[in-house]
From TrEMBL:
Keywords: Cytoplasm, Methyltransferase, rRNA processing, S-adenosyl-L-methionine, Transferase. Its EC number is 2.1.1.177. Its main location: cytoplasm. InterPro entries: Alpha/beta_knot_MTases (IPR029028), RlmH-like (IPR003742), tRNA_m1G_MTases_N (IPR029026). This is Ribosomal RNA large subunit methyltransferase H. Belongs to the RNA methyltransferase RlmH family. S-adenosyl-L-methionine binds at residues 73, 105, 124-129. Specifically methylates the pseudouridine at position 1915 (m3Psi1915) in 23S rRNA. It is an enzyme of class 2 (transferase). Signal peptide: none annotated. Homodimer. It is found in: Cytoplasm. CDD domains: RlmH-like.
Amino acid sequence: MTIKLIAIGKTDSTELQYLISNYSSRLRHYVKFELVIIPDLKKSKNLSETEQKRKEGEALLKLVSPSDALVLLDEKGKQFTSIEFSQLLQKRMNSGLKNLILVIGGPYGFSEEVYKRATQKIGLSKMTFSHQMVRLFIIEQLYRGFTILKNEPYHHQ
């Protein structure tokens, strides 16, 4: 299985870039992993929220194949413990899924078209985090999930 994380806009913080790169590298020891960045829309200040979500959604959906599982990182999504999340990963791998695509939306969230295409929504917390931080959090949780599945000592219960 390949896991692809798609996010809108670049990460400005060099510290976050370093940590994201570090955990991405660790994660690749367990699974094929790819981080795809959709560039920020040009002249987005001239767009309404709905129009911005629509344009970001179009760019996002171009990267998704019909057979891909599309999982949105959404504040209203189901929340998991790290162990439950690792079990979800195992279930997806056992199903023969080729591509698991996780998506971090833009500043206003997702368009209706993206919500309709999604197979699942996952919430990381009831708190709101910056889109930059969410990248690090989900990559670290993916890494943690695979260490749990391999019974490695990274996660402590």
